[in-house]
Amino acid sequence: MRPLADYKTLVFDCDGVVLNSNQLKIQAYHDVAIKFGASEVQAQALVDHHVNLGGISRYPKFEYFLREIMQQPVTEQAMQALLDSFTAEVKRLLIDCEIAPDLMLIREANPSAKWMIISGGDQVELCDIFKQRGIDKLFDAGIYGSPDNKDVILAREIETGNIAKPALFIGDSRYDHQASTNAGLDFVFLSGWTDVEGWQDYCASNQIVVFNHLGSLI
After folding, report:
1. Under CATH, what is the fold of the domain 4-20+99-217?
2. Helix, strand or coil for residue 189?
3. pLDDT for 138-195, tens place per residue?
């Protein structure tokens, strides 16, 4: 990692980085599964699948839930019911969750850098929540999410020049690290709000720079 002031672009994951929302997302997956008719064991299986695939969008997770856990066909009707229910739960939970307290300190440490969100969360939902929370204007290079995955978004934004290098990706999942590294971005792992089990071993084996919270980057 370079000094923070050297980066032209800062890319932030959302859950566990900007918002303290990982545990709320876990609760949302559990509750949506129960409402759909899953047993407690089946709901926990969806939660486990979600945690194992940190940073991946909800679409393939709910396809897996229907096909592998519920042993049902993946129909448009079932997917829409799950997605609508999940969106409602997420909006209800995230509208009041904690925002990273050091965002403005990061901005002051590098006022010229472009800021961007690249998340596994739904893009329309993210834009709405960030606007309601009053932090959307901080991310002047855009707020991006699913249905496109992070690899697609990174490649596209680099191609258009919206991500200028050197760029730093700040994330809290294995996928954040893999996607950013593949795209040629530097990466730091935030551990304070992560829900990744065994992150210490993963970061050590991959020689990843780890900070507890955003303020530690300064």
Report:
1. Rossmann fold (3.40.50)
2. strand
3. 999 999 998 899 999 999 999 999 999 999 999 999 999 999 999 999 999 999 999 8
